[in-house]
Amino acid sequence: MIWGDLFGEFSFGLVVITYRGLEELKAGESGSEFGLALGVFDGFHLGHQAVIDAARGAGRVGVLTFDPPPVEILAPGRKAPRKIIGSLAHQERVLAELKVDFLVVVEFTREFAAVPGREFADELAATGVKRLAAGHDWSFGKGRSGNVDLLDEWVEGIEVFKVEPVCAGEERISSSSIRVALEEGDLEKAARLLGREYYVFGEVQQGKQLGRTLGFPTANVAVAEELLPANGVYAVTARWENHQVSGVANVGTRPTVDASMKRNLEVHLFSNDVPDAYGWILEVGFTRKIRAEKKFNGIDELKAQIIADIAAAKSKL
């Protein structure tokens, strides 16, 4: 199944095939040589990219991950953190840019969690994979009975690579450190750990059209699963279909006009060629934070600030 087809030309010609489970992988890659990067990848940051790079060299390369995140099954009372990259379509988009050929999504259930590590290793070997790579501390199977060293012993004729942690300066790169940076509005640090600008992916839905009333129409982007940065106003880069334009975005609750509103992402695009419709997919990259969210003394003060925010965003183009 090619999930990117759901989004028309949004793939920019970049397509990653998604296989649901090992049987689909085995059938889909039959006759080809390939490597697999293994793990729970949230964000595809520089540490994850090192695992992917270690899996290269055997022809095609794929990423194998799990859905839902194992923590949701293994620790049901513990809420999984909001994802850096949520939807499958967005994962495919990022992996295509990383020159990955396919994604394998293994459904993580209680039954799967009870499979011994050795049995899962045998199932991996049966797919025909030639090269496997995982982080040094990755474990798998019932009771964490499998790890990278044991995997190397269990699969014969398959190269296995254990990837050590990747650091940015003194800091070990991790999804949790990226989340903290985003929650603090530190886009520079998040981009440094990710190896790219941070962006989210969502559907444009109908909002209250206040921006249009003020003369600054906005796209109300429904980001269902992904982590938004700290509340505030940002200079952004937006992409849809074959378009890429700059803009200014507000993340927050719009305290001046609607204090009860949930956190939301609204984007004003610096383009006259924006679809006058709903339901299209927009990718929003956060370039620079302009200011924190603020409550203003009325609409006129808010409008004046929007003009200043637009000027601030355009000054860095």
Describe the structure.
The protein is α/β, with parallel strands linked by helices. 28% of the residues lie in helices and 28% in strands. It has 11 helices and 16 strands. It has helices spanning 22-28, 46-55, 70-74, 88-97, 110-113, 117-125, 148-154, 175-183, 187-194, 210-214, 299-314, and strands at residues 17-20, 34-38, 60-67, 102-107, 131-135, 139-140, 146-147, 159-163, 167-168, 171-172, 198-205, 219-222, 232-240, 243-252, 264-269, 281-292. A 6-stranded parallel β-sheet has the order 1-4-3-2-5-8, with helices on both faces. Strands 11-12-15-14-13-16 form a 6-stranded antiparallel beta barrel. Helix 8 (175-183) runs antiparallel to helix 9 (187-194). The chain starts with 16 loop residues before the first strand and ends with a helix. The model is unreliable at 1-13 (pLDDT under 50).
